[in-house]
Amino acid sequence: MAERTQRNNIMLAFITLVAVVLIVSIIGFITFRKGTEIIQGQAEANEYRVSSKVPGRILKIFVDEGDAVKAGDTLAILEAPDVMAKLSQAEALEQAAQALNEKAERGTRAEQLQAAYEMWQKAKAGLEIAEKSYQRVNRLYEEGVMSAQKRDETKAQYDAMVATERAAKAQYTMAKNGAQREDKLMTAAKVRQAEGAVAEVNSYVSETYLTASADGEVTEIFPKVGELVGTGAPIMNVAQLDDMWVTFNVREDYLKDFHVGGEISAFIPALEKDATFKVTYMKDLGTYAAWKATKTTGGFDLKTFEIKAKPLQPVENLRPGMSAIVKK
């Protein structure tokens, strides 16, 4: 009887030990078996900043955060009195240059031209009288009536009137011909210079009207109406929701299913639907990025790669920041 009891106890202990081993094995298998790996990405979109070349004060903002805008829409207006003052100065200089150019092109005024002509006619009349006087005195000198000194004085007066007539004629010719070619070119160049200055200032004036360079959605507005902003300071951000992609950070031991030009399927929890994406970009994140050391096990260090994928078809209601899940 004692022997049977002892055998039963041994058998019970053995069965208990086997059961414990089985239970521990099952728990270990369940605990340590490799589960489904999840690669999580995030939706992103191109975004551009709206800013101005000129400093100024925010006069009016026409949009709110979340508004959809079209390319060319006016988003805000800046008040820049300094620029407007420079425009007035440039326009005044342009008007002065135009006046000088018109004067050079038009030539001498009619009154000045007439005065130069009258002076020439006066010189011609004086020359005729001086010539006749010289001829008379010269005849009298040849007849022995007039002295040589008197003849020389009359000849000097005649020569002086010849020079006076030539000078008067030259003055009239110059007045008739107007400004020289070089003067006209110079005044025309000054006009072009002034026009360039006006165009430059007008470009600054246009910068006070901030417009959308592409379709999108206003995501952030930084200053308030009445605040001063500096040159190049961002006024607002506009996201281009028609140009979106998803960025994944993938460890290299999971890269076998990712390659540029390949397609992947991802689940978007926020929309509760799957979408197909095409891989367009793949690059390692460098030594500073997350990596997994395996050298202690005789393997190699696993680096992380940045992968960008664009949806093959537009995903309705997909927004920047939404998660995309790829299960491995």
From TrEMBL:
Q: What is this protein called?
A: Efflux RND transporter periplasmic adaptor subunit
Q: Which InterPro entries match?
A: HH_YbhG-like, Single_hybrid_motif
YbhG-like alpha-helical hairpin domain location is 84-203
Q: Which UniProt keywords apply?
A: Coiled coil, Membrane, Transmembrane, Transmembrane helix
Residue ranges annotated as coiled coil are 83-130
Record Pfam families? HH_YBHG
Q: Which SUPFAM superfamilies match?
A: HlyD-like secretion proteins (SSF111369), Single hybrid motif (SSF51230)
**Source organism's superkingdom?**
Bacteria
Q: Which residues cross the membrane?
A: 12-32
Q: Does the keyword Membrane apply?
A: yes
